[in-house]
Amino acid sequence: MRIGPKKIGGENPCFIIAELSANHNGSLNTAIETIKAAKEAGADAIKLQTYTPDTLTIDCDKDYFKIEGGTLWDGKTLYQLYGEAYTPWEWHQELFRVANELDLVCFSSPFDITAVDFLEKFDVPAYKIASFEIQDIPLIEYAASKGKPIIISTGIAEEKDIELAVNTCRSIGNDNIILLKCTSSYPAPLDLANLNTIPDLKDRFKVEVGFSDHTYGSLAPIVATTLGAKVIEKHFILDKSIGGPDADFSLDSVEFAEMVNKVRDTEQLLGKVSYDISEKVKKNRKFARSLFVTQDVKPGDIISEKNVRSIRPGYGLHPKYYNKILGKQFTCNVNRGEPLSLKMIEGL
Do residues 96 and 159 share a domain? Predict the structure, then answer.
């Protein structure tokens, strides 16, 4: 599978997405500078969100539409929050242009069918289905029908929701699916991350997997990488001092770059399944154990634990011969400290 020029899965590096979200704080210039900073910080992609308050909800102050429950946004209505957070559609062309000039993959989360139609004008390389849209089967079906990779966050999903979303994509012939383990809490506590779900998602649904992170810091993405995540998504902000709805659990330029470096280091540490050893390690095999003569001996002397031992370094006969040679005779004079060889032993 590819997203733009990037290969996803297998032994390919993690595809690291910087989520712009609301971190432009209403400024096109901030959005542009954020994209540039994400590139410098090592992101492979920048992801937008394509909605308006009216494509997500209605302007209503009934209790149904008020945010409560200990979030960063308690006291607001959904319409108010989305009015503060959305990325104006008229910005998209410029944001895509800037990203393309930087060779930074740019795509978006559509939140309704009109957003998919709008994003098709930019030939986006993938679609991201946000956690809270995993139950919007018509949206998933329509986005998947465009034949591009579909990335689906599972933050609010039960297993049956994930199965339905995956089957919806496959029912129209789109098997380019990436499921992201996610905890839809902002910020997300570590004890709810349950990152061991990542390999289970891969095995259970036969898809590529990743992690959409709302925890503080970069520990969780690093652990996710060790568990097989091939996509990492993290909210990115130019400078936390600008504030905004998502600033609290976003990484700034320095933090994001540090996360990228740690993920790349983790990938190097994980490497691949291999029983080969490097040339450098091969050279160090000389310090392994081998059989050495540990007393001066002459022809006819009997090999015993007193005159032959398995010691370092590794220039002598392999220790696997030790029991086989005990009781046999030396064929020549050998000084203490010489590596043992087969020609020194009678009958071998």
Answer: yes
